[in-house]
Design goal:
Layout: E1 7-11, H1 19-32, E2 37-43, H2 44-50, H3 53-56, E3 63-68, H4 83-109, E4 115-119, H5 124-132, E5 136-140, H6 144-151, H7 153-164, H8 171-174, H9 194-197, H10 204-219, E6 222-225, H11 234-243, E7 247-249, H12 272-277, E8 284-288, H13 297-310, E9 314-317, H14 330-333, E10 338-341, H15 346-350, E11 355-360, H16 364-373, E12 377-379, H17 386-396, E13 400-402, H18 410-422, H19 424-444, H20 449-462, H21 471-482
Parallel strand pairs: 1-2, 1-4, 2-3, 4-5, 5-6, 6-7, 8-9, 8-11, 9-10, 11-12, 12-13
Helix pairs in contact: 6-10, 13-18, 18-19
GO molecular function: quercetin 3-O-glucosyltransferase activity; quercetin 7-O-glucosyltransferase activity
Organism: Corymbia citriodora subsp. variegata
Protein name: Glycosyltransferase
């Protein structure tokens, strides 16, 4: 049972890939700190996916799952809102919804919260923690490069003003390097999330992210990265460490290094692994653009045409409504060497010997799954941190190529597939991704850097001496613990 006064309450941002890393971190910490109680607060819909009701009985005894009210998932016509509208609606109602859930968790536990662990995007957690007089610990899920961009948002805005002379920005302006930011010399203004560049003064999300970049350095007792020190430029990590009170890199929380071997009996309801078993080694293009991002209809059609013209064996995970964008008759014509599925066990697919390339939107978790499988990438960044990830893949790690011009055409995709699957450059990419994989296997091992930072985080959350401790004093003691 959890000891009195040690009660970590976890607040989740329930969109995209964000819930899973925080859920996995919670389970990791709960296993390592059995005397600490963990209350996991998330919307009912997201909780239903991550912790289904039957599976909750198998959770560690010190973990409890609570549903948070979700204000308005649909508009008044019953149609799903645009993702940006959903996020805005959620953020508007979240402080009150989470506040009520925290009260319920405290009452149920019979002890006050001693530490607030939240997704970094939920910046109201800072004020909530201050009112409760407890430390605020945050998890940053996307690439650390994007976190640096948010911290330096004022510098970036000034850079854009100087390069444009106060006028509307041009393509040359957007190609300007971010070398003024430590560790981001390879990045361009065009790699920044759209909400930072175009919607920075009007979007609720943009305003929230700008405030987050300013608040985390002074308000967060610790910032935890869903990443590895070995995967990022040394100047970038050194600078982030100088900005935050504590910076911990606990590894990619949704990917195992090394991954388990593919097994057709595990999570293979669509027969993907059995299908791959019949393919030649490193011959298959696995295509998936994540759960939210979708290329335009013309790009989907062009990708299908490229696969057909090159007769590239492929496994394509795409939503049912996107099938309508494919060229007429394509499914039948490619049946001998292609497979369309509504969902695939991605980690298992990428670790299969037949997988030769991953055509991806460059979501951070998907990138690490590719690395874990030793598979180079063809990159079609779509939004948020995707562009920065694509730049890292191509120019820093050298383990993939971006689609020329950022827009899929038949010719561009034919060229990219030829380079990665059949060219000498592709062989070099495969070698480099294997080398990166080995570095991360070591980092994730029992004596690696990620495991050391997990232990440090366990120590931090386990040494709260009182549910009403002074957060600033605790932050100082935590710094001394890991110095």
């Amino acid at each position: 049972m959890a000891s009195p006064g040690r009660h970590v309450t976890v607040l989740v941002f329930p969109f995209g890939s964000h819930p899973w890393p925080l859920a996995n971190l919670t389970l990791k910490l709960a296993t390592a700190a059995p005397d600490v109680r963990f209350s996991f607060l998330n919307t009912a819909k997201s909780n239903g996916v991550i912790f289904s009701l039957p599976s909750r009985a198998e959770l560690p005894p010190n973990v409890r799952v609570y549903d948070v009210g979700d204000s308005s998932p649909d508009d008044h016509h019953g149609q799903m809102k645009h993702p940006g509208e959903l996020v805005s609606s959620f953020l508007k109602a979240a402080p009150d919804s989470f506040g009520a859930a925290v009260d319920a968790a405290e009452q149920d536990a019979g002890t006050k919260v001693s530490c607030l662990l939240t997704d970094a995007i939920l910046i109201f957690g800072c004020e909530m923690a201050e009112k409760m007089q407890v430390p605020w610990v945050t998890l940053w899920v996307p690439t650390p490069s994007a976190l640096a961009a948010h911290v330096y948002i004022d510098v970036i805005n000034e850079l854009r003003r100087e390069s444009s002379g106060g006028d509307a920005s041009t393509d040359d302006d957007n190609d300007k390097s971010l070398e003024v930011i430590p560790g981001l010399s390879m990045m361009r203004i065009s790699d920044l999330p759209n909400e930072m560049v175009n919607d920075r003064d009007t979007s609720r999300i943009a305003c929230m992210l700008r405030e987050m970049g300013r608040l985390l350095p002074r308000g967060a007792a610790a910032v935890v990265l869903n990443s590895y020190a070995e995967a990022n430029p040394t100047p970038l990590i050194a600078d982030l460490k100088s900005k935050f009170k504590i910076l911990l890199q606990v590894g990619c929380l949704t990917v195992s290094f090394p991954p388990p071997p593919p097994q057709s009996s595990i999570s293979d309801t669509t027969g993907c692994l059995t299908w791959l078993d019949a393919r030649d080694p490193r011959s298959v293009a696995y295509i998936c653009f994540g759960t939210i991002a979708t290329p335009s209809p013309s790009e989907v059609s062009a990708l299908g045409e490229a696969l057909e013209s090159t007769e590239t064996p492929f496994l394509w995970s795409l939503k049912e409504h996107v099938l309508a964008y494919l060229p007429e008759g394509l499914q039948e014509r490619t049946r001998a060497y292609g497979k369309f599925v509504p969902w695939a066990p991605q980690g298992q697919v990428l670790s299969h010997p037949a997988c030769g390339v991953h055509v991806t939107h460059c979501g951070y978790n998907s990138v690490f799954e590719s690395v874990a499988g030793g598979v180079p990438m063809v990159c079609k960044p779509c939004w948020t941190d995707n562009m920065m990830n694509g730049r890292m893949i191509e120019e820093v790690w050298g383990i993939g190529v971006k689609v020329e011009g950022g827009i899929i055409t038949k010719d561009r995709m034919e060229k990219a597939l030829e380079v990665v699957l059949r060219g000498e450059e592709g062989k070099e990419m495969r070698k480099k991704v294997g080398e990166l994989r080995e570095r991360l296997v070591e980092a994730a091992g029992p004596h690696g850097s990620a495991e050391a930072d997990v232990k440090a985080l366990v120590e931090l959350i386990s040494t709260s001496r009182s549910a009403r401790c002074n957060s600033s004093n605790l932050q100082q003691s935590w710094i001394a613990l890991i110095a």
